[in-house]
Fold this sequence. Notes:
- The complex is a heterodimer.
- Chain A is of the alpha/beta class.
- Chain A has helices spanning 44-51, 74-80, 96-107, 112-125, 141-152, 171-188, 199-205, 225-231, 235-241; strands at 4-15, 18-29, 33-38, 59-64, 81-84, 159-163, 191-195, 208-213, 218-223.
- Chain A contains 9 helices and 9 strands.
- A 6-stranded mixed sheet of chain A has the order 5-6-7-3-8-9, sandwiched between helices. Chain A has a 3-stranded antiparallel sheet with strand order 2-1-4, with helices on one face.
- Chain A starts with a strand and ends in a 7-residue tail after the last helix.
- By secondary structure, chain B is an all-alpha fold.
- Chain B folds into 2 domains: 1-41; 45-260, no CATH class.
- Chain B has helices at residues 2-37, 44-54, 59-81, 90-128, 131-137, 142-179, 184-194, 197-223, 231-260.
- In chain B, α3 (59-81) runs parallel beside α6.
- Chains A and B meet through α2 and α3 of A and α5 of B.
Amino acid sequence: xxxxxxxxxxxxxxxxxxxxxxxxxxxxxxxxxxxxxxxxxxxxxxxxxxxxxxxxxxxxxxxxxxxxxxxxxxxxxxxxxxxxxxxxxxxxxxxxxxxxxxxxxxxxxxxxxxxxxxxxxxxxxxxxxxxxxxxxxxxxxxxxxxxxxxxxxxxxxxxxxxxxxxxxxxxxxxxxxxxxxxxxxxxxxxxxxxxxxxxxxxxxxxxxxxxxxxxxxxxxxxxxxxxxxxxxxxxxxxxxxxxxxxxx
Amino acid sequence: xxxxxxxxxxxxxxxxxxxxxxxxxxxxxxxxxxxxxxxxxxxxxxxxxxxxxxxxxxxxxxxxxxxxxxxxxxxxxxxxxxxxxxxxxxxxxxxxxxxxxxxxxxxxxxxxxxxxxxxxxxxxxxxxxxxxxxxxxxxxxxxxxxxxxxxxxxxxxxxxxxxxxxxxxxxxxxxxxxxxxxxxxxxxxxxxxxxxxxxxxxxxxxxxxxxxxxxxxxxxxxxxxxxxxxxxxxxxxxxxxxxxxxxxxxxxxxxxxxxxxxx
Lengths: 248, 263
C-alpha cells in the first residue's frame, strides 16, 4: 500500500475563471498531521475544498485514498473523509448528540441504541459528554469545534480535514484543541490535514507543512515547519515564521 | 461600450441563473424519484416540523385574511347587487370565487410571504454557515436533506390553509349578508347549491400546486444565497417575489386551460 494518502500533481487551484494557485504538487502521507499554511487569502482553504471534493481542480490530478473525485467515486470517498469547518457547521436544530449521530443514522447499520452509544463515546473522546443534549447555540465556539471534530470522526474516516481549528479561540482553548488532535491521531491513527496560520499550533502538531504565497500564486515550501523555520532562505517563509519581522 | 458590456454581463448572468434553476429543479425531481423508490430515506421528521410551521403556525394569519377577504368581497358585491334586489346572490359569488380562485390564490400569496421567505432564510443561513458544505462532504445531498421535506410540507400545508381561509371567507360573507337581513340559512343554502366537489377539489389541487412552487422557489433561493452581508436578505426577497410571480403565472395558465377545456 502506498504511504501517500493524498497526492496532488501539477494542480491548478481556484474557481472557474480565477486560478489562485498554479502547479501545486505535494503528497500527504498516511497517519501524519499535515498543515496547509500561508497568509490570508493565499488559497489554502481553496486547496482543501479541492481535497474534500467540494470544487473540482482546474488542472492536474488530485487523488484521495487512491481515487480521483468524480460522480462515481463520490459516495465511497465521502466515507473516507471527515471535515471540520471553520464555523463548526453544526446543524442548529439538532442537539450535539444528534449532530454526531447524523452520519451514523445515514450510513451505518447500527441500531439506534448502538448509534447513541457510539456518538456518546465520540463526545467523550472530545470531552463533551456533558453537552450531549445541548443545542449548538448553547455552547461556546471552542466546544462547537470539538463537537464538529466528533462528528467528522463518526464513521472512522481515514482522513480528517480541519479548517482553521484555532480561529477565534483564546490561546488556552486553542492549545487544548491541539492536544485533542494529537491525542486522536495517536489513539486512532488517522491522517489529519489542517488549514491554519497559527504558529504555536503549527509547531506543536505538524509533521509536515506546505506553505503557499498569494503574491506568487504557488506553493513555496514543503517540509517539517521547524526545519523550514531554521533553514529556509525564502524571504516570505522567513518573514512568516518570524511573525512578519523581515530579519527575525 | 460600457452599456453594451453591462447588458452583455446581465444577459450572461440571467442565462447562468436560468441554467442553475433548471439544474436545481432537475436535481429535485431526480431526488424525488429516488425517494419514491426508497421511501425510508425521506426525512419525515424534518417534513413534519416544516409542515407544522407552514400550516398550523400560519392558521391565524391565513384565517384572518380569508375572513377579511370574504367580508370585503361581500360588501363590494352587495353594493352592486342591491341595486337589482338580488344581494342574496352574493353568497353564490363568494362560494364560486373563493373555492375556485381566491381561496388558493390569497393563501398561496400568504404562504409565499411567510413560508417561502422562511425557507430561503433558513437554507441561506445554513449555506453561509457552511452547513450545506458539511452535508455535501458527509455524502448527504442537500436537496434530499433540506429541500424535499420542505417542498412536500408546503404542498401538504396549502390545502389545509386553503380550506380554513375559504371557510373564514364564507363566514365573513355570511356576517355581511346577515347585516343586510339575508338569513344565514339562506346564505349557506346558496353556497351549497353552487359548490361542487369538482370546484372545491380543483381549488385545493391548485393550492397544492402553488404550495409546491412556493416551496421549490423558496428553497432554491436559499441554496443560491451568497456569502455577503445582505445575502440572506436578498434570498428571502427573491423567494417572495419569485413565489408570487410563479403563482400569478401558473394561475393565469390554469385559468386559460380551464377556459379551453370548458372546466
